[in-house]
Amino acid sequence: MKRALSGIIFSLGLWALAGLGGCASDLPPRESFEDCLYGAPEPIFDASLPGVSQHQFELQPGKGVERFVLNQSTTVQIEQTGCDQIRQEFTFSWQAVTRKEDWALQAIQKYRELGELGAPYLSFSAISEVLESRKENLRPRGEPISLQPGLAFRITAAEAGQESKLVTVLYETTPEEE
After folding, report:
1. How far apart are CA 132 and CA 134, in angstroms?
2. Within 10 Å of residue 73's Cβ, how many Cβ atoms?
3. What mean pLDDT is predicted for residues 146-162?
4. Alpha carbons 23 and 69: distance in angstroms, whole number
5. Is-contact 110 166, C-beta < 8 A?
6. How far apart are CA 161 and CA 145, in angstroms?
7. What confidence tens digit (pLDDT) does each residue in 13-65 have?
8. What is the pLDDT confidence band of residue 162, given thresholds at 50, 70 and 90?
9. What's the order of all strands across the beta sheet hosting 145-148?
10. Which value, to the nearest 10 degrees, does the dihedral of the CA atoms of residues 35, 44, 75, 151 take?
């Protein structure tokens, strides 16, 4: 039952994120998004959510850029691009406790924290659960992980130092890419 419920939440949540997330141009950046399947990017989060502070959203040519601080400890930047196929790049930055990070664990934790912001964000919890089940395949610049048909996840970069930085991408795929 829990697995079925998670699947429903995950599917509906991803559909909702697509609606919330909008998209931008894949080819040359455009000022206008009127030809895009999903229209112009829109913010996914807002400053009224407990756990979200210093929220900003800016529509730029070819993309939407959202920035905020999550739970007073992690800076999050989301770049939304893609006109007919959504691509959302999440950059998480935080003060490092150690110089060596478990990137799979960090990705799982960061998406779990996003999912804990409220019911509209439960799809992030579902993403976290899928990542947990596939954590042995989750590494920077590793192979993409299919979250469900048509949606993939990948860690594209990770840096440890005084400030750790994790860059992940959620993106739509075509049947040929799966």
Report:
1. 5
2. 9
3. 92
4. 23
5. yes
6. 26
7. 544 454 444 433 334 444 567 888 888 899 999 999 999 999 999 999 889 99
8. confident
9. 52-60, 63-70, 74-81, 87-95, 163-172, 151-159, 145-148
10. -70
Q: Which of 10, 15, 20, 61 is nearest to 41 (CA)?
A: 20
d(CA 68, CA 174): 31
The DSSP annotation for 114-157 comes to HHTT-GGGHHHHHHHHHHHHTGGG--TT---EEEETTEEEEEEE
d(CA 161, CA 28): 35
- Across residues 125-151, what is the average pLDDT? 93
* Contact assessment for residue 93 and residue 157, using Cβ atoms and an 8 Å cutoff: no
Amino acid letter, 170: L
Angle at 93 (CA atoms; ends 122, 118), nearest 5 degrees = 20
Which residue in 164, 167, 45, 55 sits closest to 116, CA to CA?
A: 45
Q: What is residue 177's predicted lDDT score, i.e. its pLDDT?
A: 61
Residues in the chain: 178
DSSP code for 95: E
| 23 CB neighbour count, 10 Å cutoff | 27
pTM for the whole structure: 0.82
* Strand 74-81 relative to strand 52-60, pairing: unpaired
The torsion angles phi and psi of 174, rounded to 5 degrees, stand at -100, 160
Least Cα distance to 42 among 57, 31, 30, 28 occurs for 57
